[in-house]
Amino acid sequence: MLSPVVGMGSGARTEHRGSIMYHTIVVGTDCSPTAERAVATAAQLAELTGAKLHLVTVYHDAAASLAAASGAGMVASEWPEVAIRELGARIDTIAEGLRARGLDVESRVENGTPAVTLVAVADAVGADLLVVGDRGLKGLRGVLGSVPNRVTHRAPIDVLVVHTA
Fold first, then answer.
1. Does residue 79 form part of some domain?
2. What is the CATH number of the domain that holds 35?
3. pTM, whole model, 2 decimals?
4. Residue 62: which region, alpha, beta or left (left: phi > 0; alpha: psi -120 to 50)?
5. Which residues contact 45 (CB under 8 A, 6 or more apart)?
6. For residue range 5-36, what is the model confidence (pLDDT) as tens digits?
7. Residue 3 domain-assigned (yes or no)
8. In angstroms, rounded to a whole number, what is the distance separating the alpha carbons of residues 91 and 34?
9. Higher pLDDT among residues 121 and 71, named by residue
10. Three-class DSSP category at 106
């Protein structure tokens, strides 16, 4: 039996029969196969608790500029619109599958840096749990710090880091 931890999170959780119940869960995803595990875990928690689930994917203008400059076949000004459209279609497909299971799901594509944006969305929707995977895009991540690490240091609510490998 779980009991509430004093001083953790926003206090938005309630105790129900001795266990902590989450009401609003935000899960960050880049719509990759490894991120599916974090989404699946968040969905299971939402099913168990009756929580609303917010699927969030984040793109960054700097990444868009790099992709366009590398010859991605479009001009830099077109990249954000294409990215938003493609990410939106991918995250909406995931959301539709979860809704078919009876979950209350919202999906959104946001512009910004992943950790800051995920924490901001969690705050905006009044989330009491933020779920992220432990793996993400390779490259500069090791130098700059991982998204899960940054989220856990920034979020004033509970964070679940799901092992996705």
1. no
2. 3.40.50.620
3. 0.77
4. alpha
5. 22, 25, 51, 129, 131, 160
6. 333 344 455 555 555 689 999 999 998 888 99
7. no
8. 14
9. 121
10. strand
